[in-house]
Specification:
The complex is a heterodimer of chains A (about 180) and B (about 230). Helix content of chain A is about 70%, strand content about 0%. Chain A has 9 helices and no strands. The longest helix of chain A is centred in the N-terminal third of the chain and has 24 residues. The N terminus of chain A is likely disordered. The longest helix of chain B is centred in the N-terminal third of the chain and has 27 residues. Helix content of chain B is about 30%, strand content about 30%. Chain B has about 230 residues and is α+β, with helices and mostly antiparallel strands. In chain B, strands 5-6-7-12-11-10-9 form a 7-stranded antiparallel β-sheet, with helices on both faces. Chain B has a 4-stranded antiparallel β-sheet with strand order 1-2-3-8. In chain B, strands 4-13 form a two-stranded antiparallel ribbon. Classes of the chains: A mainly alpha (about 180), B alpha+beta (about 230). At the A-B interface, helix 1, helix 2, helix 3, helix 4 and helix 5 of A face helix 1, helix 2 and helix 3 of B.
C-alpha cells in the first residue's frame, strides 16, 4: 500500500514535467528564437508561444529532459519564430505553401538495392540538406507520431500544408535517389 | 525474393526515422554549446507563471493525493461562518460554498470545486475601467484562460487574468502580503497587499470563472477595476 502511494508520488505529473522542461530549455529556446528574429521582445514572444504549444502536448512527452524532447522543442520554437517573422514582415517575399495540395503517397525505390550500394549516410545527407520546414514535418510524423492535423497546429499551418510538406520531404528524398540511379521500377 | 510494397515502405520509414534522429542530434549538438542564460523580462516571467498555474486543472485524483501528505489548515469552515449571512443569497452561496482556502506556511491556495461542463469560454472579457494612463498592451490566449496586460506611461504593468474556475486553484504568497476579505455588491474579494513592492493582488470567483488582478495600485482602484469588468458577448 505504501509503495503504491510512493510510486504515485514519484511519478511526475504534467505540471511538474512542464516546469522541468521550462527551467531546462528556456535559454536554449530563446537563443534559437534570437537566431531567427534578432529581437529580444519577439524572441520572448516566440518562446512564450512555444511553451503554450508544449503545454498543450505535455501529456505526449514522456521524459522532460532528453534529446528527443529537446529536438521536439527546437522544432516548435523554430517554426513559431518563423511564424512571428512572417507576421512582422508581411511584405517580405516568403513563398506560401500550396494549399491546393491533394494528399498522395511517394513510392520509394527498392530499399535493398539502395542499401546494398550506399549506406544510411547518403539518406542522412539528404535529410540534413533538406529545408527545415520539410524536415520538421517529417520528424513530427516519423519521430513523434503526430498526424497531419496535430502537425498543422504545432507548426501554425493548415492541415493541407502539413500533408504537403511531408509529401515533399519524401519526394525530395526520392528525387535524390533517382539522380543516383535508384528509380522505382 | 523482392520485398512487397508495404514492407518496402515500412523499411523506408524506419530508415528515415533513423536519419532524422541523427540529423536532430547533430543540430542539438550545435545548438546547445555555450548557451548563456537570458534575463527574461518580468512580463515574460509573469505570463509563464500564469501558464503554469493554469496547468493541472484536470489533475487526476492520485496527484491530489500527493498534496494530502503536506497538510494545512483548511479555512472553508471559517469562511462559511464569517459569511453565513450571505448564504441566503443564492448567487453568492454558490461561489463561497465552492471556494476553499488552504493556508500554508508560505502561501495561500484557493481551490474551486465546481463544474464548467457545457459552458463556453468567453474570451471577450475585458476591463471596463483602468486607472488613468494605462492602456491594453497584449492579450495572451491560453486556451482555458486569458491573460491581459495593461501598461502605464511610466512603465508599470497591470495584469488581469481569468479562466474557468472548474477544478482550478490559485496560489498566492502570504509571507510578504497581508490578507483581507472584501465583500461588495454580492461579491467576495480576496485582497493581498504587498509589503515589499506594492504589487497588490485581488482574486475572486463568480461561479464560472476565477479572476485575478496584479498591479501596483491601491485597494480602492483595484476593487473599482474588478467591479467594472465587461464582456462584449
Amino acid at each position: 500500500m505504501i509503495s503504491f502511494f510512493l510510486a504515485l508520488i514519484d511519478e511526475p505529473n504534467d505540471k511538474e514535467k512542464f516546469i522541468e522542461i521550462y527551467n531546462h530549455y528556456k535559454n536554449m529556446m530563446h537563443r534559437k528564437a534570437m537566431c531567427i528574429l534578432h529581437n529580444t521582445a519577439l524572441a520572448e514572444e516566440a518562446v512564450q508561444e512555444s511553451f503554450l504549444k508544449i503545454a498543450k502536448n505535455i501529456s505526449k512527452i514522456s521524459s522532460p529532459v532528453c534529446s528527443k524532447t529537446a529536438s521536439f522543442i527546437v522544432i516548435i520554437v523554430r517554426n513559431t519564430s518563423y511564424d512571428i517573422l512572417r507576421t512582422e514582415n508581411p511584405n517580405d517575399s516568403v513563398p506560401l505553401d500550396d494549399d491546393t495540395f491533394v494528399s498522395s503517397n511517394v513510392e520509394m525505390p527498392d530499399i535493398d538495392k539502395v542499401f546494398s550500394n550506399i549506406g544510411i549516410s547518403f539518406v542522412l545527407d539528404i535529410i540534413n540538406e533538406m529545408d527545415n520546414k520539410y524536415r520538421d514535418a517529417l520528424a513530427l510524423k516519423h519521430l513523434y507520431g503526430y498526424n497531419s492535423s496535430e502537425i498543422a497546429k504545432l507548426l501554425g499551418i493548415t492541415e493541407k500544408n502539413a500533408e504537403m510538406r511531408i509529401y515533399r520531404a519524401k519526394a525530395i528524398l526520392k528525387a535524390r535517389l533517382e539522380e543516383n540511379g535508384y528509380a522505382v521500377k | 525474393m523482392p520485398l512487397s510494397r508495404g514492407a518496402n515502405e515500412r523499411l523506408w520509414d524506419a530508415v528515415i526515422k533513423e536519419a532524422l534522429i541523427e540529423s536532430m542530434n547533430r543540430e542539438l549538438d550545435e545548438t546547445e554549446q555555450n548557451i548563456e542564460p537570458h534575463n527574461f523580462s518580468s512580463q515574460f516571467e509573469h505570463n509563464m507563471n500564469k501558464l503554469i498555474k493554469s496547468m493541472g486543472r484536470k489533475e487526476k485524483a492520485q496527484t491530489i493525493g500527493k498534496v494530502i501528505g503536506k497538510f494545512a489548515v483548511t479555512a472553508a469552515t471559517v469562511m462559511g461562518i464569517m459569511f453565513c449571512g450571505l448564504l441566503t443569497q443564492q448567487e453568492v452561496y454558490a461561489a463561497v460554498g465552492n471556494v476553499i482556502r488552504n493556508i500554508f506556511s508560505t502561501h495561500d491556495k484557493y481551490t474551486y470545486q465546481g463544474s464548467s461542463e457545457n459552458m463556453t469560454f468567453d474570451d471577450t472579457i475585458r476591463l471596463g475601467y483602468v486607472p488613468e494612463g494605462y492602456e491594453l498592451r497584449s492579450v495572451y490566449y491560453m486556451g482555458n484562460g486569458n491573460l491581459l496586460t495593461y501598461e502605464s506611461k511610466d512603465g508599470h504593468n497591470l495584469y488581469f487574468d481569468y479562466s474557468f474556475a472548474e477544478n482550478s486553484s490559485i496560489t498566492i504568497d502570504n509571507e510578504t502580503h497581508s490578507y483581507k476579505e472584501i465583500f461588495k455588491n454580492n461579491k467576495l474579494y480576496y485582497f493581498y497587499k504587498s509589503e515589499l513592492d506594492d504589487l497588490n493582488t485581488l482574486i475572486w470567483f463568480d461561479g464560472k470563472y476565477e479572476y485575478s488582478i496584479d498591479a501596483q495600485i491601491s485597494e480602492d482602484e483595484i476593487i473599482k477595476i474588478a467591479e467594472n469588468i465587461k464582456s462584449s458577448k
